[in-house]
Amino acid sequence: MSRPPLTVAAAQMGPTQRAEPRSRTLARLIALMEQAAARGAQLVVFPELALTTFFPRWLIEDREELEAYFERAVPGPGTQPLFDRARELGIGFYLGFAELTEDGRRFNTAITVGPDGALLGKYRKVHLPGSFEPRPGQRFQQLEKRYFEPGDLGFPAFRGPQAWGRPVLGMLICNDRRWPEAWRCYGLQGVELMLIGYNSAAYDPNGGDAEDAAIRTFHSTLSVRANAYFNATFAVAVAKAGVEDGAGLIGGSVIVDPNGMILAEARTLEDEVITAQLDFSACLQGRGPGKMFDFALHRRPDQYRRIVEQAGMTPPP
Amino acid sequence: MSRPPLTVAAAQMGPTQRAEPRSRTLARLIALMEQAAARGAQLVVFPELALTTFFPRWLIEDREELEAYFERAVPGPGTQPLFDRARELGIGFYLGFAELTEDGRRFNTAITVGPDGALLGKYRKVHLPGSFEPRPGQRFQQLEKRYFEPGDLGFPAFRGPQAWGRPVLGMLICNDRRWPEAWRCYGLQGVELMLIGYNSAAYDPNGGDAEDAAIRTFHSTLSVRANAYFNATFAVAVAKAGVEDGAGLIGGSVIVDPNGMILAEARTLEDEVITAQLDFSACLQGRGPGKMFDFALHRRPDQYRRIVEQAGMTPPP
Known about the structure:
The structure is a homodimer. Helices cover 23% and strands 23% of the residues of chain A. Chain A contains 9 helices and 14 strands. Chain A has helices spanning 22-38, 63-67, 80-89, 144-147, 180-187, 213-230, 284-287, 295-298, 306-309, and strands at residues 6-12, 43-45, 92-100, 106-113, 119-124, 158-159, 168-173, 193-198, 234-239, 242-244, 247-249, 254-256, 262-265, 272-278. In chain A, the strands form 3 sheets. Chain A has a 6-stranded mixed β-sheet with strand order 5-4-3-2-1-14, with helices on one face. In chain A, 52% of the residues are buried.
């Protein structure tokens, strides 16, 4: 039985300044969702930490001030209207947010919600960049390791609903997309569509590093294209972009096919919707029986033990 | 103490027809090596199975006929002049060849030889594509799984000599370059320069698959660029190219930096030398302390167990 195509949208966001009230951010998310639905999208992907500014750029020592950036429940008071509108539109969505658990643990989290409002999957970011201790004398920090615990849910693939053709879905968050291990853990579960939100610095806001937005956008896109190809999966990668509270974020949101080809690409650093129609049978060119990435036929796990037996580099003498 | 730059060459080969005598192939290899040396190269990388046509495209049932494609010793009668000339020139080289061991085992092998003729490293291809059984009724086969055992040496990184700045070197062969596991096993040993030879079909010579040379060359280059970036390493990937015994091979030999940027790229499907000068300090932008790919800081091996615990895909129900 042939599977229906799935129309997906990437809802890139421009910056969300610290001073922006939640009601305004929610209105932007809902407007993006409505645009996506109007263009036929059945699933819309929002960025990492889509509800707030990228607050790990500051050292926040007051617990109450820090926890104001976190959601205690999703849906909750600050997100319910988005869930309501999605259900009215019959559209699913991926949403990144800062999660505060009942027992006080904090994670950088994403969920995927089905067209009927059901929670399909939840993921907690495994590869937290930055540092635990603030870097002295620097205006901008990257304190994800301070504010979040590493994800403890592994890389849990899950299926979309019948109306989407029951594709195997996976979620990653931002820096995860640069780690082939993360993709492969999903690839081994047969992922057909990877959903990714990100906030990636366009340059060093402290001026200490020469990399510019062009190379950082190239690295983001390269990571998504190559890992999609290696795992014969579609991928949607979505930025929060532009100058946010004085620090630049790359855009470059893309929808990529299992050949690593770009189906749609954002052109701005603002709120912008891109869409593509996905035919999941295209995954078979890479992964079908006897093909290049028929993992059962070609992978040699006995040779890969170093990947799980050490974290850091151990060069030869 | 700052390390000297290393000038490397990729010596792409045009096709080597079945009827070409070894003396002719050796003369081509030596000519390429001389060109590389004349352009200042200290290390030249030749393709996979550089001494013969890509014989796994045929079912060869006669043992003697098959073993004629294999080297019993390297250097040996059919390769000694290349070793001699390399030593005269003071140039190191990577050479791919079919290896027949004393006890009759067969591998798809590469070695790297230092500027003084010393064997620096040896690698046996882990990811053998194709099939063991011939596909009935097809003019061209891909029988690497029949003619070779999977490599049994792991992914053994090694150091180059003092004159090269003692870089950590790794070797892969052809299809290996598409497997991020293989690169990561070297990345975890601190590889700074990956050497790769390949013979990759430009299209399905039996006409059953629509992929063309453009997309296959894109996939080859994408694999090298992305994995070089993910592991903050330079890479040299070198084709045997052109129409060989009626079957097309892609070219697209490249030298890539740790940002995934192309430093040099072959333009033909013929014998062609490209060179680049490598500054190994460029690896530190990716892997230095606190950087994006500071593995010890950011990798989470406890989350990657699926990579070694299963070979094939196991989708969710």
